[in-house]
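Continuing from yesterday's entry. The apo prediction looked reasonable, so today I'm repeating it with nicotinamide-adenine-dinucleotide included to see how the binding region is handled. Same sequence as before; SMILES copied from the compound registry.
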Amino acid sequence: MSDSYSLLILPGDGIGPEVMAEVVKVIDWFQANHGLKFDLSHDLVGGSAYDAHGVPLTDETMARAQSVDAVLLGAVGGPRYDALDFSVKPERGLLRLRKEMDLFANLRPAQCFDALADFSSLKREVVAGLDIVIVRELTSGVYFGQPRGIHADDNNPENEGGRVGINTQRYTSGEIRRVARSAFEMAQRRRGKVCSMEKANVMESGILWREEVQWVHDNEYPDVELSHMYADNGLMQLVRQPGQFDVILTDNLFGDLLSDAAAMLTGSLGMLPSASLGAPMENGRPKALYEPVHGSAPDIAGQGKANPIACILSFAMALRYSFDQGEAASQLERAVERVLAEGVRTADLMGPEGGRPVSTSEMGDRIIAALSA
Ligand SMILES: NC(=O)c1ccc[n+]([C@@H]2O[C@H](COP(=O)([O-])OP(=O)(O)OC[C@H]3O[C@@H](n4cnc5c(N)ncnc54)[C@H](O)[C@@H]3O)[C@@H](O)[C@H]2O)c1
Ligand SMILES: CC(C)[C@H](C(=O)O)[C@@H](O)C(=O)O
Ligand SMILES: [Mg+2]
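Holo prediction written out below.
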């Protein structure tokens, strides 16, 4: 019998609670069959927290997130909250978690399961066997840089609307070096290649990014093969020939764009998990939050159509990175692969030939059945 791991479950909004319900089934299965013990607590984030408390994340929930071994989040946001003041929008709750937990390294693997190679919008031969990881910086850059805001542009009579919107791309060398180390370490466990992406041709922060990544490479990870690309070319290369990459290292905003694009290499946004990791805590495990890359999918929420695999695979990442249960993680990933190979598909994975899609909960049940087989 192993230790008990504390896990804070934040289902969030839209399809978040629907996909999280399937993860809880998977957690229960591991407790019943694998000798693993989880101490689960549930709380609110995003629009659901706003509805209950008037803020997208309470201080109590924030404190709880800081104290557990790992946080598992569904998704936040939705059109109901579009008109809210910016400071209390659902997304601010997620961004506060990332910032205050200092989760600087966001690992976003994009793997194309063989059974899904025909569901990508790209040709099978471009995506079959694909296995890459995007390492996205998550706590700095233009998402958090100061100054920011919307102001009156008082001294500029030529500005027709009279206002100015400001965000600042800002990176320190230390912020770049620590996330670069995460990428190089990831590459050492994989195929040994890092491609770093920025816009050093137009942005000073991009020049600093390139220099610092090169410094970390030359001084600490000379065994890893490092290349640099401008991020616009990088996104083109990602859809042209994704197999050329192993680990992509990039900043907060470019990583957001690249990872949504990478979703289409795998067949669906409903397939992409992620881990957001910080520095090691006293027990040696990193501060961690696991969440699917997708959002709350308001267009399909409440209909049992959501694909729970991204959230389930996020829990597999938790098993691997927070709980040292690499074998259990692989078992869960193999169960997902097997279910897909059997042709079980949620609606987002239906090809033009059609067929009957399974519901969110049927997909969860099939994955549990494959775990038990
Ligand atoms: N981490 C997060 O919580 C997160 C991430 C992205 C977007 N959002 C928020 O979600 C809301 C909706 O954003 P959006 O529509 O741009 O992005 P989205 O990811 O919610 O949806 C984009 C498209 O992908 C589909 N999709 C997404 N996940 C799916 C799944 N698991 N199964 C099947 N189909 C799936 C949706 O139906 C939609 O057509 C916004 O408020 C946005 O800010 C939250
Ligand atoms: C919801 C939003 C704050 C978030 C981001 O922009 O980082 C999302 O798009 C993501 O990819 O996790
Ligand atoms: Mg995104």
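Comparison notes:
- The radius of gyration is 21 Å.
- The pocket of magnesium ion (ligand 3) is lined by residues 256, 260 (CB under 6 Å).
Will overlay with the apo model tomorrow.
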